[in-house]
Design brief:
alpha/beta; TIM Barrel; Lyase, Ornithine Decarboxylase, Chain A, domain 1; 9-stranded mixed beta sheet; 8-stranded parallel β-barrel; 13 helices; 31% helix; globular; binds pyridoxal-5'-phosphate
């Protein structure tokens, strides 16, 4: 790491950009793996602790393979994510399938892979039985409704389409037990990009008390609680990362008093974070095409919101470094834009930055999760390449950039010639 949190300096990045034209996303393998180790170590007290990486955050099999090597599983929510996991060799109970409004073929695929199937609704139990059969393990997603606050990205739980009510959980576990199922888990996901560490301790407490309750009646024995993902990252310079040791210690205390003391141990703690695993360790690199002065100063990049739509979608802050000008004072207030014909195609609005010129390389930070993954092709924009910087500095292209051929591949252009109007 250099002083500004980047794994490369200007010269090195210019050399990379000579081989791989901008824009591109680049991930820092060393930092991703060190972070994975920190998470595992924080929860080492819990035998069977496991993180299932939320594939939707960075659905690239090379990244998934790195995380597999660290002992992580996959949290999948679609056919494509299941297929990617299978390709990487992540199968069996190393997959948690947490979907909603699920088609039968996705349940069938998840089941064929031996995944843990986490049901989103009580009616899915019958749907599963009809289309796949009775699962070996019953895991249900809990939605606490008005009992929890939620946060701005995910909203109020009672407005959320996900999960079972508490009464439905009781009914579901009783029904599963009556069917002869004897392996049980419980899941929830009530926050997104949450920086308050206490929130995750409260979530564990909520699940532990449900475990205690359903262990008494209908009398099922839980193997695990999955506390979901949603751990936030410090996008703004003044934000602080969630203290994983604080979260872990808080959960450990509750585990002693609520689980061990009641004879409910062992109980595995599972997690399915995406953002905090890769988010801070991926960067969108783009070159300045034009500087435009009208009513405001605009920087025109060769990247656009198709490469990173969080600012346009949520008004999210992403820190920006102008390479080689890290030490220069702010010299202007800029809107940093792309070339898409939508006025919200801006990576930053009224941002103080050093004097920017055409040709400068800009690095947009914290793009490693929900970045490239949210890309789209509106306005004929092509998705960029993804690169991986290995610990020895070697660069591997882990996804090439799209071409117009890719974009038009779904059109039948021969049919067009024959098409008479
Ligand atoms: C999106 C999602 C995650 C990952 O969320 P992060 O904010 O990236 O940690 C985990 N679980 C479910 C069910 C999700 O939908």
């Amino acid at each position: 790491m250099t002083g500004n949190g980047l794994p490369f300096r200007q010269q090195q990045l210019e050399e990379i950009a000579e081989r791989y034209p901008t824009p591109f996303h680049i991930y820092d393998e060393r930092a991703i793996r060190e972070n994975a180790v920190r998470l595992k170590e924080a929860f080492a007290w819990n035998e069977g602790f496991k993180e299932y990486f939320a594939v939707k955050a960075t659905p690239n099999p090379y990244i998934m393979k790195l995380l597999q090597a660290e002992g992580f599983g996959s949290d999948c929510s679609s056919m494509a994510e299941l297929l990617l996991s299978e390709t990487v060799g992540i199968t069996g109970e190393n997959i948690m399938f947490t979907s909603n409004d699920t088609p039968a073929e996705e349940f069938q695929k998840a089941c064929a892979l031996g995944a843990i199937i986490n049901l989103d609704d009580i009616t899915h139990f019958d749907f599963l039985e009809k289309n796949v059969g009775i699962p070996e393990l019953a895991c249900f997603r809990y939605n606490p409704g008005p009992l929890r606050e939620g946060n701005t990205i995910i909203g109020h739980p009672e407005e959320a389409k996900y999960g079972f009510t508490k009464n439905q959980l009781a009914e579901g576990y009783a029904a599963a037990k009556a069917q002869g199922i004897n392996r049980f888990g419980i899941h929830t996901m009530v926050a997104s990009n949450e920086l308050n560490a206490q929130y995750f301790i409260d979530t564990a407490e909520m699940l532990f008390s449900l475990v205690a309750e359903f262990s008494r009646d209908p009398g099922v024995r839980f193997e695990f609680v999955n506390i979901g993902g949603g751990i936030g990252i410090p996008y703004k310079p003044e934000d602080n990362a969630v203290d994983l040791d604080f979260v872990s210690n808080g959960i450990h205390e509750l585990y002693s008093s609520m689980i061990e003391a009641n004879g409910l141990a062992p109980l595995r703690i599972l997690m399915e974070c995406g953002r905090m695993i890769t988010g801070p360790y991926g960067f969108l690199v783009s070159r300045v095409r034009h500087i435009k002065n009208t009513y405001k100063k605009f920087v025109g990049l060769d990247a656009c919101m198709a490469d990173l739509m969080r600012p346009a979608l949520y008004g999210a802050y992403h820190h920006i470094t102008v390479m080689g000008k890290e030490e220069e004072p702010a010299a202007g207030i800029y809107d940093v834009t792309g070339s898409l014909c939508e006025n919200n195609d801006k990576f930053a609005i009224d941002r103080e930055l050093p004097e920017i010129e055409p040709g400068d390389l800009l690095v947009i930070h914290d793009a490693g999760a929900h970045g490239h993954a949210m890309g789209f092709n509106y306005n004929g924009k092509l998705r960029s390449a993804e690169l991986l910087m290995r610990p020895d500095g070697e660069i591997v292209e882990i996804r090439r950039a799209e071409t117009t051929r890719d974009l038009f591949a779904t059109l039948d252009l021969d049919g067009l010639t024959a098409f008479q109007v």
